[in-house]
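This is your field. Pick holes in the following sequence-structure pair:
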Amino acid sequence: MLQITNLKVNTLSGVANGKVTLTATIVTTSPIDDIEVEFHGDKEYDVDIYGYYYNQDFSIPRGNKAYDTSQEIQIPTTVEPGDYHFVIRLTDQAGHQQIRAMAIKIK
């Protein structure tokens, strides 16, 4: 079993160089291989929150079947106003994926 539940952002609108907090509950019965958050609009902005990239890593404590995560994400200064969305992609070690998305408007 692999699930992303309770996906929320603290605001449904943001501004360039502002911050948005993304929260979710991860439920799993198998080891997690990767958690990736993407910020999409006309351009794609990757925000790596698992592993050792950009020092924004975290791990799910071994043996836990549910884990609450909260990530503060800096909106790029180069972003244009418009409709965007965050996508969180969870992959376990067997290769199974779960994907969830949340829309946000940049003013």
